[in-house]
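Lab notebook, bench 4. Still working through the backlog of constructs that have no structural model yet. Next entry is a single chain of 179 residues. Request: give me the structure tokens for it.
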Amino acid sequence: MVGLNVLLWVFIALFGIIGYARGYKRELLVTSSVILTLYLITILEAYIPFIRDTLVPNPQGSIFWMRLAIFGFLVFFGYQTPTIPRVNQNERFHIRNPQDSIVGLVVGAVNGYLLFGTFWYYLDVSGYPIPFISSPELIAVAGESFKQIINLMPPAVLAAPAIYFVVALALTMVLVVFI
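Model written out:
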């Protein structure tokens, strides 16, 4: 059995390696897609009556699967956009020097935190609806540190109103890097 906190570090390292291979410009698109996902989920849960009144009050219900579907869809396209042939031929996405890869490693590691941290947070808030993933015992020392870690995951840190500023920052970064 592997703890989710160990998996968090494994994903950070794995996505750092992926970011090193892809370069920072491609990884910034993934970062932007995760931020867009958090923003979209925040907006949907606050302003769409069916979601706000029916799904959100019942966290063990289908809200987890809705969040996961939106998250998976947007992150998938964040990773796939640079491989579209027309976009891939653009010189802006090519790795030109070692700094592109090194910055890509850092941005990729941040993406690992954003991706796995978001999944873990939504999993915890929903009461672990996936049968083979369970919460640690909260009476143990590990369980207590677990709750502190959950409060540092992206949806907790980037809750409203912080997500609005982060979306503006992400859009600015995309504009600066690609235009």
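Notes after review: The first helix runs from residue 4 to 22. The mean pLDDT is 85. Flag for follow-up if needed.
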